[in-house]
Amino acid sequence: MEDMTLSPTEMAQAIENVEGMSLSVVIPAYNEENAVRSTVEEVREALEPLNIPYEIIVVDDGSEDKTLEEARVSGATVDFNQVNSGYGATLKRGVRRAQHDYIAILDADGTYPAHYLPDMLAQCREQDMVVGDRGAAMKNVPLIRRPAKYVLNSLASFLAERKLNDLNSGLRVFRKTELIPFLPLLPQNFSFTTTITLCMTCNGKRMVYTPIEYRKRVGKSKIRAVDFVNFVILVLRIIALFNPLRIFIPLGLGFFVLGFLKFLYDLTQFNLSETAIFSFLAAIMIWSLGLIADMISRLHLRP
């Protein structure tokens, strides 16, 4: 592994950049007995030299191995779900327990290096959320999952009207005040990171990406193939909640174009078909629903 030890000058600069800040690091863990303790130690090594208030919170999600015991031995603050409740539920438990102004989330599987935390925290002074962008480091993601990730990121970027480099990165730093209002909207499962990205983006929050290394995980991935379908449905639901016209206008336009083309064909046959009429009516109904959804979103759902 690359040596990330900072020089005295770099360390002094890092300390200056985070002066007056404080950080809670939330680490969700499920069956990570071989990695959770080293993850905590790595976080501590990254934050201890900064001389700022910080805490490390490990939340065990009903693990079936010795994850809970390893977390307690690590010296971190430990909480747990009595049964496996999901990645999102685990993070929300940790976030609610966090005591500091800024919150970082970091997976317990060894994939996200903790040495990025000081710089990400410093960037968050001027941002609402800083996200670790895995970029080219995604080579460590299994090949079979890359097409799904590309499709999901492309769909989310289109609907959110912004380039989203890494939709569900598990390394982020937030302002606690900006994160808390969205907690009721966040799901219980792996969609937590996807949802918070879309919530922040669609509400005009300040969010930046920063390049990070992405290491090969310790143990086996908990994501299943069916989760891709759930992610797509989630993206559509969140955009319908915060930016509904981004969905309803193109969908209505599709029916309108279909009806218009059928209408032109009908003119050559001197006959107006039901297909053309129904397509025009469908477009009008979809656009009307979109306007109503947008009005509701603006009046009630935006923090």
Structural class: alpha/beta
Q: In which order are the strands of the major sheet placed? A: 3-2-1-4-6-5-7
Q: What is the CATH-assigned architecture of the largest domain?
A: Alpha-Beta Complex
Oligomerization status of the protein chains:
single chain
User: CATH homologous superfamily name of the largest domain?
Assistant: Spore Coat Polysaccharide Biosynthesis Protein SpsA, Chain A
> How many structural domains?
2
Report the radius of gyration as a whole number of Å.
Answer: 23 Å
Which of globular, elongated, flat, extended, rod-shaped describes the shape? elongated
Q: How far apart are the termini?
A: 43 Å
Total strand segments? 7
Characterize the structure shown:
The protein is an alpha/beta fold and 303 residues long. The chain folds into 2 domains: 8-242, Spore Coat Polysaccharide Biosynthesis Protein SpsA, Chain A, CATH 3.90.550; 245-301. Helix content is 49%, strand content 13%. The chain contains 11 helices and 7 strands. It has a 7-stranded mixed β-sheet with strand order 3-2-1-4-6-5-7, sandwiched between helices. Helix 2 links the parallel strand 1 and strand 2 (54-61). Helix 6 runs parallel beside helix 9, helix 8 (192-202) runs parallel beside helix 9 and helix 10 (245-269) packs antiparallel against helix 11 (274-301). It starts with 7 loop residues before the first helix and ends with a helix. The model has no long low-confidence stretch (mean pLDDT 84).
